[in-house]
Write a structure and sequence with these properties.
223 residues; mainly alpha; two-stranded antiparallel ribbon; 10 helices
């Protein structure tokens, strides 16, 4: 496939990601939180594939970047915040703060340093919320605590390495493939537990587990 074709593929996947986010919002309004959370987990894997393809094929497209930003905001901002519910003023306020935090983090997506993100990527925060929602059966207190924690991680501006699931070590490819297989073949509870452990390992051990390839690339560039 030529460069234009790969641009079309990544744009189509970003559009699909946004559509999944819109359907997740619809499911949340219809009180179908299980379905809404499942769509967010699909979007988590889809977004990772889009980012990997963009880096691998060195795709630079203004349309693609804008479409991806809209998809991230819709899916990992609005749709994820609605998992908290808007039944009461406190939940509604926390949902608004979550959307603002995701938007703030999106503004700092490019840190100016290769191979790293500034602030926790909102896709990982969304995965944590969706997995927690499925595992706790929408326990409002637990979801609120996790959302508050994810807000802090998104806005603290710490550095996180590019996960590079599909580009670097083979074990990362196995992790990604495991997530896809779990989503297709396993009950939602097992898939949620798998994705939760995956996301938490990235959040709490970014350098020890996920940053080795990034460190090697930086050292190679300096040399």
């Amino acid at each position: 496939m030529n460069d234009l074709s790969w641009k079309d593929v990544t744009n189509a996947l970003s559009l699909l990601n946004m559509i999944l986010g819109l359907f997740s919002i619809f499911c949340s309004f219809c009180k179908k939180s299980r379905c809404a959370s499942g769509m967010l987990l699909v979007s988590f894997l889809l977004d990772m594939a889009v980012r990997a393809m963009t880096r691998y094929f060195n795709i630079c497209s203004k349309l693609g970047a804008e479409l991806n930003d809209f998809a991230v905001f819709t899916t990992f901002g609005l749709a994820s915040a609605l998992l908290l519910g808007v039944d009461g003023p406190l939940n509604g306020f926390l949902a608004v703060i979550y959307v603002l935090a995701a938007s703030f983090r999106l503004c700092f997506y490019s840190a100016g340093t290769p191979f790293i993100y500034r602030g926790l990527p909102s896709s990982y925060a969304s995965c944590v919320l969706a997995s927690t929602s499925l595992l706790t059966k929408d326990n409002t207190f637990v979801l609120s605590c996790m959302a508050s924690l994810m807000i802090l991680f998104m806005i603290d501006q710490s550095y996180y390495p590019h996960d590079e699931i599909l580009e670097s070590e083979n074990w990362k490819k196995v992790v990604y493939l495991g997530g896809v297989l779990m989503l297709l073949l396993s009950p939602f509870s097992l898939t949620a537990f798998y994705c939760l452990m995956w996301s938490l390992s990235y959040i709490f051990f970014p350098d020890a587990l996920w940053g080795k390839a990034a460190c090697l690339k930086l050292q190679h560039q300096r040399n």
